[in-house]
Specification:
It is found in: Cell outer membrane. The chain is mainly beta. It contains eight helices and 32 strands.
Length: about 750
């Protein structure tokens, strides 16, 4: 069929044409597997974003072929500075099924170690809740005191078709209740048959094996469509045992198993397209090396209805969604062997809607307005252990009882083409965030719980924040060979429920509220203020006119954050864990600054096409009140990749280098890590409807410490007096193979 031929042609083209205008992975990113090598074809990365279509193009009725290509999910405005969007190719899944790893192509991106499919992304020093993370248009919340189920963990990497990022200065239509930027993943847009083609159907099967950790998995994708109706299904399963580091030591609590399903149906009529997605997930176990707890079950179900229409006056988009989560934690085999046992249960739900309209005021000016609502509910309780009273019984411990966080938003932004060279985008957003929670109780009425619970229950716990975001950006493209981008923004974020409402000063309870991987104990603060970030960002890029030969881009940024949510030492309650500390969330002022540099050059033809590309990233962060370094800041890192393609065969060798992490947060007792370098290799061969992928991660089996890896809870418990041994190490060498069949 035509679609099969198009897919085959796309794969053959990706193997035969080495047009890599931007590097595929920021060097030294925090990861459970080495970074994906640059084997993707990037459409806009590192090149000037295409100019906005004329009003005639925006208001005219799209052809069936254009409707076929219309994205179901929102993407960055086409002229938005600091935005990048790229397609995902099958070979990106060879090293990891974690969807967060798909962003390894973005300069300034790093990852805090989590579970095998639950890394926490960081962008230019801002991570986790400080980033707006969107999955198929849905804003999802981590329903766990350890953030074991972040938004990107709810879609397998094999189901992702496109990723997009806007760093720092985010349009108000794309970001709210966040500071560092917006990252989004989207599954494939629905396919429709062209006029007169009748019904079409097809699909894809893929499987992989990774030697380190004995990881394996499979994915199935199938679709069927007519001219007006489309249905598709993607299902995947993956599992792995504990991996080994470069010295052959087992990294405990790094095993996982996950199964994901996504069923999508869509229809179209004229210029209108509508659809609904059903997603469900089961993770029966997932180890977390740098947490006291492991995930012992995670089940979710989501419904996501969406609409997009084109009209004479512009466009209209709408979305209504709900996701429910049932999450359990305890200790898997490794930590259970230490005698640990502590069941914890969580129930959460995200419900929301979002509507956006674009009004073409003139040929050169478009006004976009929108309204959003996001409702989050959370219950977090810890069942008692038989015979463990009064420390862990006889009552149920309520960590968060009937937690509520509701956000109502409205925004407007104006995009103007002043000339063929100048484009500006200005916008204002208003967010009203209301949070509250019910009364709590400890395991028993003993003083270590009763005093804190009584004090918390006597509070008026309802908090209302009124947050204002303002963004202004400009793009100047005086010629086809260079462009400049400028931007400034005021961005805000309100505290999450755990930051405000985790209530117990007891050491044990505090260690269960920790999504930082440092094994410290944390307690919340109901009086936290929203964070307010004042950011400035600029970039300059030069390239050949055809965007095929060479490219160079440098971006710099500076952000001051008023009321940054950091920590101070908590002296209330019992003693801290050995060698660790107790902390309380507080508002401080902070500053972050950094630079990203990316470049590429075609080297010519010699038994194939050759290209070299590279990226360098550096960020510095400081708490201005405590005069300390900020926590979880990735050290300077660089990556250089050499790519070779010959017909249907492609090869890439990648060198990653990471500087030593010496600027650490002394309040949190953050560990230092040593500098390291890794070499990775990928090879792919495509023929007809089959693709074979081969790779070696960490070719020389280098032993290295993860700069954002934290401490191993298992190793710490066995030797708390020697924390150097507890630093989490990255994976050693892994031989990976995969095969994909299109039908």
């Amino acid at each position: 069929m035509r679609l099969r031929k198009n897919i085959r042609a796309l794969w053959a083209t990706s193997a035969a044409v080495a047009v890599v205008v931007g590097p595929s992975g920021a060097l030294g990113q925090q990861q459970s597997a080495p970074a994906q090598l640059p084997e993707i074809t990037v459409e806009t990365t590192g090149t000037p974003t295409p100019k906005k279509a004329s009003s005639a193009q925006l208001t005219s009725s799209p052809s069936p072929a254009q409707m076929e290509a219309m994205p179901t999910h929102s993407s960055p405005p086409p002229t938005q500075p600091f935005a990048r969007e790229q397609s995902v190719m099958p070979q990106q899944f060879l090293s990891s099924n974690d969807s967060a790893r798909l962003f390894q192509s973005v300069p300034g991106m790093s990852f805090q170690t989590g579970g095998g499919v639950s890394a926490l992304p960081y962008l230019n020093g801002f991570g986790d809740d400080r980033l707006k993370v969107v999955v198929n248009g849905m804003t999802l919340t981590s329903s766990c005191g350890n953030h074991m189920n972040p938004a990107l963990s709810y879609i397998d990497a094999t189901a992702v078709d496109k990723i997009s990022v806007v760093a720092g200065v985010t349009p108000v239509s794309m970001g709210g209740d966040s500071l560092g930027g917006t990252i989004a993943v989207d599954s494939a847009a629905p396919l429709f048959a062209t006029s007169g083609e009748g019904a079409i159907a097809g699909g894809r099967l893929s499987a992989f094996y990774r030697s380190n950790g004995n990881g394996f998995g499979a994915t199935a994708h199938a679709y069927a469509a007519t001219e007006d109706v489309s249905i598709a299904y993607t299902g995947s399963t993956t599992r792995a045992s504990n991996y080994e580091d470069g010295s052959g030591r087992e990294v405990y609590s790094s095993l996982y198993k996950a199964t994901n399903h996504l069923l999508s149906a869509a229809g179209r009529s004229g210029n209108n397209q509508f659809g609904v997605d059903f997603g469900w997930q089961s993770i029966p176990y997932q180890g977390f090396v740098n947490q006291y707890m492991d995930m012992t079950d995670n089940k979710s179900f989501s419904v996501n209805a969406h609409y997009k229409g084109q009209f004479d006056w512009g466009f209209l988009e709408g979305r209504v969604y709900r996701q429910s989560i049932r999450h359990s934690m305890n200790m898997l085999e490794d930590k259970a062997s230490l005698g640990w046992d502590m069941p914890m249960e969580t129930r959460g739900s995200d419900t929301g809607y979002a509507f956006k309209a674009g009004l073409q005021l003139t040929e050169a000016t478009q006004l976009r307005v929108g309204h959003e609502y996001h409702r989050y509910r959370l219950d977090d309780w810890w069942p008692p252990l038989a015979g463990a009273a009064p420390m862990m019984g006889p009552n149920t411990y309520w960590n968060i009882n009937d937690g509520k966080r509701d956000r109502t938003s409205a925004f407007g932004e104006l995009e103007t083409d002043w000339s063929s060279a100048w484009t500006t985008l200005v916008g204002v957003r208003l967010d009203r965030v209301v949070s509250d929670t019910g009364p709590v109780q400890g395991y028993s009425p003993m003083m270590m719980y009763a005093a804190d619970a009584n004090a918390f229950n006597s509070l008026d716990r309802k908090r209302t924040d009124t947050n204002v975001d303002v963004t202004a950006t400009a793009r100047y493209e005086p010629a086809a060979t260079h462009a400049f981008e400028f931007g400034a923004a005021r961005k805000t974020r309100s505290p999450n429920l755990y930051e405000r409402y985790a209530w117990s000063n007891a050491t044990m309870a505090g260690t269960m509220v920790n999504w930082f991987g440092d094994l410290n104990a944390y307690v919340g603060n109901p009086d936290l203020k929203p964070e307010i970030a004042h950011s400035a960002r600029a970039s300059a890029e030069w390239h050949d006119a055809a965007h095929r030969d060479w490219h160079f881009k440098v971006s710099g940024y500076l952000t001051y954050v008023d009321d940054y949510i950091n920590v101070e030492t908590n002296t209330i309650g019992g003693a801290p864990p050995p060698g660790r500390t107790k902390l309380r969330f507080v508002n401080h002022d902070a500053r972050l600054a950094g630079v990203d540099i990316e470049a590429s050059k075609a080297l010519g033809y010699a038994w194939g096409d050759w290209r070299v590309s590279g990226v360098f990233s550096y960020v510095a962060g400081r708490d201005l009140d405590a005069d300390t370094y900020l926590y979880n800041i990735m050290p300077a890192n660089v990556r250089v990749a050499l790519t070779h393609t010959l017909g249907n065969w492609s090869n890439t060798v990648e060198l990653q280098g990471v500087a030593a992490k010496n600027n650490v947060d002394v309040v949190r007792l953050e560990p230092r890590t040593s500098a390291y370098a890794l070499v990775n290799w990928r090879s792919s061969y495509a023929m007809d409807n089959v693709r074979f992928d081969f790779g070696i991660d960490n070719v020389f089996d280098t032993d290295y410490e993860l700069p954002l890896g934290g401490l191993s809870a298992y190793v710490y418990n066995r030797d708390a007096a020697n924390l150097d041994h507890a630093r989490v190490h990255g994976p050693g060498r892994s031989f990976n193979v995969g095969m994909t069949v299109d039908f």
